[in-house]
Amino acid sequence: MGERGVSPGTGTAQRPEAVGWGGLPAHIARRIIADAHARGVAPGEPLADESRLIEQYGVSRGTLREALRLLSFLGAITIKAGPGGGARLSNPGPAVVGSALGMVVQFRGATLRTVFEARSALEPGIASLAALHRTDDDLAVLDRSMTALRAAEELPGYAYAEQSGLFHNAVAEASHNDVLATVVPALVAMTSTVPWRYPRGGRKELTGRIAVLIAAIRDRDAPGAATATAAMFQWVMDDLDRNQRAALESRILWPDVDAGLAARAR
């Protein structure tokens, strides 16, 4: 006997054609999240137990568990075994978006150049929003980021690049735009998958440019923040075009993006 898709929260059978993209487990996963939202379930709170979910959605235990595994993979729920365990709603992090986007852009043939172009198109506007919406707490994070960047200027390895990425993520958070604060970490992670160097003498130069950007954000100077960010990206890309063109044309690969995001999440 075949399984049935169901209307959210009703237990009423739907026609199979209502299942849509991804098959029945994905359809049930979408219904679980829609129902949780409708009921006001908050991250950290439990969903119904397994037997109740099976009855509610009219599916087998195997199909339900596939749906829950999908939601767990996407970071939408956590699952704990044993007494007091079960599925609880969770907050998916930017790594979920970054991993999926990394897979898509690999198959589209994206390169480091296209990632930098995307960032140089987006991040001046993000900096402008940060200048308009930043709070004192945001400024404190940006100031700590500046201190960390100055401390890393002379350090070997990737410490400076890591701090630079954290700074750009902090600006995105200061924009108080949830979409942009989710997308920027994915683009930052892609930028770090290809080996490239800052321009000659570039760490101190970049730190100075970041200081100008932070000052504009502090002064709520939205045009100044956008201009400083655009100039910073242009400076980096011009040098890469002159001296590291092979790096700019290197492909972005999903395994590298995924590994970088996983390392940042630890």
TrEMBL record:
It holds the Pfam family GntR. InterPro entries: GntR_C (IPR011711), TF_FadR/GntR_C (IPR008920), Tscrpt_reg_HTH_GntR (IPR000524), WH-like_DNA-bd_sf (IPR036388), WH_DNA-bd_sf (IPR036390). The keyword Transcription applies. It comes from the Bacteria. Residues 22-92 form the HTH gntR-type domain. This is FadR family transcriptional regulator. Keywords: DNA-binding, Transcription, Transcription regulation. The lineage of its organism: Bacteria, Bacillati, Actinomycetota, Actinomycetes, Pseudonocardiales.
